[in-house]
Design brief:
about 40 residues, single chain
Length: about 40
């Protein structure tokens, strides 16, 4: 979109958290984001 183009951001990730998310799910998300950053960042 226009804002991402203006900021020079070409990819993004959105995560939604709720009371039912477990610590393990959050840890898995963080691990996945770190891996994606290592591969594509």
């Amino acid at each position: 979109g226009p804002l991402m183009d203006h900021l020079g951001v070409y990819a993004s990730c959105r995560a939604s958290f709720a009371f039912y998310n477990t610590r393990e799910e959050v840890d898995a998300l963080v691990d996945g984001l770190r891996l994606a950053n290592d591969l594509f960042g």
